[in-house]
Design goal:
Strand content: 15-25%
Number of strands: 15
Number of domains: 2
Oligomer: single chain
Number of helices: 11
Shape: globular
CATH class of the largest domain: Mainly Alpha
Strand order of the largest sheet: 2-1-4-5-6-7
Helix content: 40-55%
CATH topology of the largest domain: Glutathione S-transferase Yfyf (Class Pi), Chain A, domain 2
Largest sheet: 6 strands, antiparallel
CATH architecture of the largest domain: Up-down Bundle
Bound molecules: adenosine-5'-diphosphate, magnesium ion
Radius of gyration: 23 Å
Structural class: alpha/beta
């Protein structure tokens, strides 16, 4: 699919702007602080209903105004067109999303309709950042190809929220009898168990499938000396090196973890086990030795890993959606060239030419000539203080 046009009203520094995009490369040039990233942020709001930068909606409303309106026209792989609108009112906190004329009330029925892969300087901390950053990244990726996963995840998170608030309240108020709390927590545990099993099972399955994309992509960028490895870290694997569990094994291990930690959870006022505490570990196999990225990687290796990861997401979504009429995802590259050296930029430019619609923001106009050689169709924009001019 691709984004044909975008219209912004009172969105950040855009008062009222329209963009008509190219199905190939869209090159967005401008000096720092003029509004390039804001355009990509608006696109991510249309596709995810959230900003890829995790900015709050009220921060996205133009200063002095009370609401933003974003609308976009998409065309999918079979040529059919659809319009998506999203608005937010900072006074009433009302956020509304329309897909065509239908108001979207269930996000899991919308996410994935317009798949997106985003790479921004913010992602460069994926390898070194918190487990939450990595979970969020992969949750969003899997959600774009699996509505069931997103729906399970939302249900699970709701239960964890309720369980946590019970545990916290109990620590603060001591208003329940010990037996009473144990019963209530046990009840939440039985509610969340099946969802937790499904989520963990899906994540293990995902890692198994995703591996080939990352290896292939890494190979194209740096050669075969380094092999990227992603593993899933969870307390359910305690005491074993085999992580290829089936659902019943996950269930029985998680069940005993939840039981054995019941008292510890009540004491600490926090739920301690389950997929919301798990982690993805990135490592690199370098000439046969495995290095954990968090401790051993150089700055350049971190960047290469993240770039490969993101470009692999493209392949993963593309292949998983190939039997739908949605088509390939759109790729947003926010200011990433300034973070990479020339040889990496050249490799990446070559790699992405086979991609679908691509948006690249940069402060360096020189990249345009190079990219034009690789892309059949290119459209370039100059962004000056919230206004747009064609180049
Ligand atoms: N809510 C807002 N209202 C008005 N302007 C905003 C708002 N939020 C951010 N901006 C402006 O947007 C600009 C930054 O845009 P950005 O897209 O990040 O620039 P860049 O071209 O460097 O990517 C800054 O000038 C900032 O003041
Ligand atoms: Mg920017």
């Amino acid at each position: 699919m691709f984004l044909e046009e975008l219209h912004l009203i009172n969105f950040k520094n855009y008062r009222n702007s329209s963009f008509s995009f190219n199905p190939g490369l869209n090159f967005i040039y401008g000096e720092n602080g003029n509004g390039k990233t804001n355009i990509l942020e608006a696109i991510s709001l249309l596709c995810y209903s959230k900003s890829f930068l995790m900015n709050s909606d009220s921060d996205c409303v133009m200063h002095g105004e009370n609401r933003y309106d974003i609308s976009g026209g998409f065309e999918n792989a079979s040529g059919s067109k659809s319009r998506v609108k999203i608005s937010y009112n900072r006074d009433t906190f009302a956020k509304e999303l329309y897909y065509g004329n239908e108001k979207v009330s269930k996000l899991n029925e919308f996410i994935g309709s317009f798949p997106l892969v985003v790479l921004s300087p913010y992602d460069l901390k994926l390898t070194s950042g918190t487990p939450q950053d990595r979970r969020r990244n992969f949750d969003l990726l899997i959600s774009q190809v699996s509505r069931v996963y997103l729906s399970d995840l939302r249900d699970y998170n709701k239960i964890i929220k309720q369980k946590n608030s019970l545990l916290r309240e109990n620590v603060l108020s001591r208003r329940y009898q010990p037996m009473e709390v144990r019963d209530m927590v046990t009840l939440w545990n039985s509610e969340l168990l099946e969802l937790a099993v499904k989520i963990i099972f899906r994540r293990l399955d995902f890692i198994e499938e995703f591996r080939k994309y990352v290896e292939e992509c890494f190979n194209k960028i740096v050669g075969t000396r380094y092999i990227p490895v992603i593993t899933y870290e969870s307390d359910i694997f305690e005491g074993t090196t085999d992580t290829r569990f089936d659902a019943s094994e996950i269930r029985s291990r998680l069940k005993s973890l939840l039981d054995s930690r019941l008292d510890a959870e009540i004491k600490r006022g926090l739920s301690l086990s389950g997929p919301h505490r798990d982690n993805y570990i990135f490592s690199m196999n370098k000439d046969g030795t495995l290095f954990d990225m968090r401790t051993f990687a150089s700055q350049g290796e971190h960047k290469t890993f993240v770039v490969s990861l993101k470009l692999s997401e493209f392949g993963y979504i593309k292949e998983n959606l190939q039997h739908t009429n949605i088509g390939d995802p759109v790729l947003l590259l926010d200011d990433v060239f300034s973070e990479l050296d020339k040889s990496r930029i050249a490799k990446i430019s070559q790699l992405i030419t086979g991609f679908n619609q691509v948006f690249i923001t940069t402060t360096d106009i020189d990249h345009l000539e190079v990219l034009k050689l690789s892309f059949k169709e290119t459209k370039a924009f100059n962004i000056i203080n919230g206004t747009v001019q064609s180049i």
